[in-house]
C-alpha cells in the first residue's frame, strides 16, 4: 500500500514536471515562429564565419588589416533597390561599436535582444542563441569579421541587413544593421535562426587592406 502510494506520488510529480518541461520547449520555438511570421524579411542576408579571421589581424592597436583568407557572404537581393550609406572613413568606428556590443553580450551570457544602438550614421541591434549566448571568439576576432564583411560590401550598408555570426560551436549571433534613415523601421524586421542563409547569390571578400583607424 505504502509502496503504491509512493509510486503514484512519484508519477504525479514526474508527470507534472514532464508536462511543464515539454511545454517550455515549444514556447521559445513558438515565439520565434510568431516573430518570423509577423515581421518583415530583411533586404540582405549575410553570414560571417569568425573562424576564418586570423588572430591579431585587426586590433585597436593596429592601423590596418593585413591580406588574408576571404570571408564568404551571401545576399538575398540586390543592394541597388535600397537606400545605401557609404561608410568611408567611418568603417572602423562602426565595426568597433558593433563588436563591443557583441562581446559585451557574450561576456555577460546575455540572451536578451539588445536595444537599437546608433554609431555614426548606422543603427544596429544584436541577439544570440545557443552556447549559453556566449562565444569564445575574442573581441579582435569579432572586430576583424565585422570589418571584413563591411569592406567586402564596398563599405556600404544597404537597407536592412541581417548578418549571422558563427564561431564553429553552438553559439550563433544575429546582427541587424541599417542606415540611420531606417531607425524607425529596424524593429519591424526579423533576424534570427529561422532565416535561410543558404541563398545562392554568394560571393567572397576581405583580402584588401582596411582603412586606417585608431
Explain this structure.
By secondary structure, the chain is of the alpha+beta class. The protein folds into 2 domains: about 40 residues; about 170 residues, no CATH class. The protein has 3 helices and 9 strands. A hairpin with a 2-residue loop joins strand 4 and strand 5. The longest helix has about 35 residues. The N terminus and C terminus are likely disordered.
Number of strands: 9
Number of domain units? 2
* Rg for CA atoms: 21 Å
Query: What's the total helix number?
Result: 3
Strand line-up of the largest beta sheet: 1-7-8-5-4
Q: Which residues form runs of ≥5 with pLDDT under 50?
A: 2-27, 59-69, 205-214
Span between termini: 77 Å
Describe the oligomeric state of these chains in a short phrase.
single chain
Mean pLDDT figure: 74
Reading the helices and strands in chain order gives HEEEHEEHEEEE
Class inferred from helices and paired strands: alpha+beta
Fraction in helix: 25-40%
What share of residues are in beta strands?
15-25%
Task: Quickly list its features.
214 residues, alpha+beta, 2 domains, 5-stranded mixed sheet, disordered C terminus
Amino acid at each position: 500500500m505504502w509502496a503504491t502510494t509512493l509510486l503514484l506520488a512519484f508519477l504525479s510529480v514526474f508527470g507534472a514536471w514532464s508536462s511543464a518541461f515539454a511545454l517550455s520547449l515549444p514556447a521559445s520555438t513558438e515565439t520565434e515562429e510568431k516573430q518570423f511570421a509577423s515581421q518583415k524579411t530583411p533586404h540582405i542576408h549575410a553570414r560571417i564565419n569568425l573562424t576564418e579571421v586570423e588572430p591579431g589581424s585587426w586590433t585597436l592597436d593596429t592601423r590596418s588589416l593585413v591580406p588574408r583568407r576571404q570571408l564568404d557572404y551571401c545576399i538575398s537581393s540586390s543592394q541597388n533597390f535600397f537606400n545605401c550609406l557609404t561608410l568611408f572613413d567611418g568603417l572602423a568606428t562602426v565595426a568597433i561599436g558593433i563588436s563591443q556590443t557583441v562581446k559585451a553580450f557574450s561576456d555577460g551570457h546575455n540572451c536578451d535582444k539588445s536595444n537599437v544602438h546608433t554609431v555614426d550614421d548606422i543603427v544596429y541591434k544584436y541577439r544570440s542563441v545557443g552556447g549559453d549566448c556566449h562565444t569564445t571568439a575574442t573581441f579582435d576576432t569579432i572586430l576583424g569579421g565585422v570589418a571584413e564583411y563591411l569592406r567586402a560590401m564596398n563599405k556600404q550598408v544597404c537597407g536592412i541587413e541581417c548578418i549571422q555570426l558563427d564561431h564553429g560551436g553552438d553559439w550563433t549571433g544575429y546582427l541587424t544593421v541599417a542606415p540611420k534613415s531606417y531607425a524607425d523601421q529596424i524593429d519591424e524586421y526579423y533576424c534570427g535562426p529561422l532565416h535561410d542563409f543558404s541563398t545562392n547569390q554568394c560571393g567572397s571578400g576581405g583580402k584588401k587592406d582596411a582603412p586606417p583607424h585608431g
